Amino acid sequence: MKDKILEYWDFRSSDYHTEYAHCMDEEIDLWKSIFSEILQTDKKARAVEVGTGPGILAISLAAMGHDVTGVDLSESMLEKAAANAREKGVNILLVQGDAEEIPLKDGEYDFVFSKYLLWTLPQPDKFLDEHSRLLKDGGLMMIIDGLWFQNPDGTEKASSRFARFEELYADVKPNLPLAKNNTPERINDLVQSHGFEVVSWRFLDDYDAFLERNNLSGHAAAYIQPPHMILAKKKVRSD
CATH for 2-234, among 3.40.50.150, 3.30.1300.10, 3.40.50.300, 3.30.750.24? Predict the structure, then answer.
């Protein structure tokens, strides 16, 4: 199953998010604003973006002076992230690795985050356990995701926009617990069961407006509501 997932995202690396390449600076500024609101500190954070893809969020955070590592299963995606980082004159460490078995050390990070990753995982419980392992006590986790493959009435979309997805994910998607009904309420319950305290969640209306403004047809095809952002803290151990 992981081989098929990797094959698809290697394939998508050639065009993933490229419809927004012309407005990358605007997107980076938007993420900087969101990160400033989240972190609320001038202290340099050690951070990890899991499933970094083309690296836009990692680059945005690193441009603010933070120490950022981007992890992705797809080496082709990491090559895209490296090229984008060079273009923006930003240094990020890029590591090939599985989100359910992240090749980084325990308890060394202040902030771990992901965007549009949770739904892709066969074992989201392992993903959250890995986040807990990486974070310091009191460290912050951010998960951004959305309702994919659904129509506004809750029924499942007949097909994806990408034929290659239908081919490779036909047997995979039924084994992805959060590919369907991936609501913030479900994620809240899940993260709390893994030793996290939910700080807040909200719809990213500002990011949704950016997506719609810069790619109206693609936005209409993919989004039935704005992406949601869940923030949670790793509980401090009492011992």
Answer: 3.40.50.150
Q: With CA atoms as reference, report the closest residue to 141 among 208, 13, 232.
A: 232
Distance linking the first and last C-alpha atoms of the chain: 40
The CA distance from 143 to 191, in Å, is 10
**pTM, rounded to two decimals:** 0.94
Q: Cα dihedral sign for 32, 37, 38, 39?
A: positive
- pLDDT at residue 239, rounded to an integer: 58
Q: In the chain, what percentage of residues exceed pLDDT 90? A: 74
Residue 192 has pLDDT above 70, yes or no: yes
Asked if 107 and 133 count as a contact pair (C-beta separation under 8 A), the reply is yes
Residue 124 and residue 177 in contact, taking contact as beta carbons nearer than 8 Å = yes
Indicate the DSSP class of residue 145: E
The SS3 call for residue 90 is coil
Q: Which of 151, 155, 132 is nearest to 221 (CA)?
A: 151
Q: Distance between CA 27 and CA 196 in Å, rounded?
A: 29
- The answer to whether the CB of 132 falls within 8 A of the CB of 234 is yes
